[in-house]
TrEMBL record:
Protein EC: 2.7.2.8
Residues that coordinate or bind substrate: 70-71, 92, 192
Annotated localization: Cytoplasm
Aspartate/glutamate/uridylate kinase domain span: 31-272
Catalytic activity line of the entry: N-acetyl-L-glutamate + ATP = N-acetyl-L-glutamyl 5-phosphate + ADP
Protein name: Acetylglutamate kinase
Role noted for this protein: Catalyzes the ATP-dependent phosphorylation of N-acetyl-L-glutamate.
Alphabetized NCBIfam families for the sequence: argB
Pfam families noted in UniProt: AA_kinase
InterPro entries: AceGlu_kinase-like_sf (IPR036393), AcgluKinase_fam (IPR004662), ArgB (IPR037528), Asp/Glu/Uridylate_kinase (IPR001048), Glu/AcGlu_kinase (IPR001057), NAGK-C (IPR041727)
One GO term (biological process): L-arginine biosynthetic process via ornithine
Transmembrane segments: none
Keywords, in A-Z order: Amino-acid biosynthesis, Arginine biosynthesis, ATP-binding, Cytoplasm, Kinase, Nucleotide-binding, Transferase
């Protein structure tokens, strides 16, 4: 590479840094909840890119909180153990036997892996389950399909979020990594909570400014699966209209986006986790990848 080429490449990097400046200034000190879906944890390079983005957020003064999923990882373990599992309305029907595996995979495998990956860079990450310090309590929920109420077993909807434990970690300069197992407020057991739902409730309780949801699709398609229908921005009102027609995977995500916005979170973003550094591009550049869900009046 000639000196001129090297100077031009350096100039481009400087421009990118300068472009990030207003966003860094705007978001410094704000809490951002990142929902890291199991389908976005595709390979080691992408996981490493995710960790670098989280570290970038942390070092420019944002307060990132990671709420992770792990649906595919749970499926794989259930399959290895020969335990049947099915999804109804985007939620896993969770028998007591499956519940043990869900807890084991989320808190013992996926969360540990993320915590270790971050801490290999710098020792900031601390894992938490929704069971820890009363973080998540839930009540048993069902789902309705074609007018019929379906029993989902040990599946919960958030009853209450006690964010004290997360706030203590954030104030100590840590990066909380949360698994979405909740204490059953009506019984003496635990409940399996969809990670999108939990992330939205946590974002609301923390007064987060953003909820970022990393998944395995470019964003919300208004006319799924028509690839020309990707929406760069949608209002909460539009999402409310779309909700009944949405397919399984996107439904809990859009319900979560609405919940977060109704709880005061300024924006929810659906971001393609299969693209390296998509979070940085969405937050700190003018490029705007993914779908931004905003309040009705914006
Ligand atoms: N309107 C839509 N726009 C985008 N994706 C959709 C839509 N409807 C359904 N989907 C599906 O939702 C999936 C994402 O949800 P899910 O598989 O639950 O991801 P995650 O594990 O990241 O939570 C996409 O891969 C896609 O197949
Ligand atoms: C009730 C319910 O469906 N819980 C989910 C929890 C994990 C999750 O939500 O993982 P993703 O974000 O990767 O989909 C499950 O058991 O798969």
């Amino acid at each position: 590479m000639s000196i001129l080429d090297r100077l031009q490449a350096a100039q481009t990097k400087a421009e990118v840094l300068v472009q990030a400046l207003p966003w860094i200034r705007e978001f410094a000190g704000q809490t951002v909840v990142i929902k890291y879906g199991g389908n976005a944890m595709v390979n080691d390079e992408l996981k490493q890119a995710f960790v670098h983005d989280v570290m970038f957020f942390h070092h420019v003064g944002l307060r990132p909180v990671i709420v992770h999923g792990g649906g595919p990882q749970i499926n794989s373990m259930l399959g290895r153990l020969g335990i049947e599992s099915e999804f109804r309305g985007g939620l896993r029907v969770t028998s007591p036997e499956a519940m043990d595996i869900v807890r084991m995979v989320l808190t013992g495998q996926v969360q540990r892996e993320l915590v270790s990956l971050i801490n290999r860079d710098a020792p900031y990450a601390v894992g938490m389950s929704g069971e820890d310090a009363g973080l998540l309590t839930a009540t048993k929920r069902t789902t309705t399909i074609e007018g019929e109420e379906i029993d989902l077993g040990q599946v919960g909807d958030i009853h209450h979020v006690n964010p004290a434990g997360i706030l203590e970690l954030l104030d100590a300069g840590r990066i909380p990594v949360v698994s979405t197992i909740a204490t059953d407020v009506e019984g003496d057991g635990i409940l399996n909570v969809n990670a999108d739902t939990a992330a939205a409730a946590i974002a609301g309780a923390l007064g987060a400014s953003k909820l970022l949801m990393l998944t395995d699709v470019e964003g919300l398609y208004l006319d799924w699966p028509n690839k020309d229908s990707l929406a760069p921005t949608v209002s909460a009102e539009q999402v409310r209209e779309l909700l009944p027609s949405l397919d399984a995977g996107m439904k809990p995500k859009m319900e979560a986006a609405l919940y977060a916005i109704d709880a005061g979170v300024e924006a929810a973003h659906i971001i393609d986790g299969r693209m390296a550094h998509s979070m940085l591009l969405e937050i700190f550049t003018d490029a705007g990848v993914g779908t931004l869900v905003t309040k009705d009046n914006e």
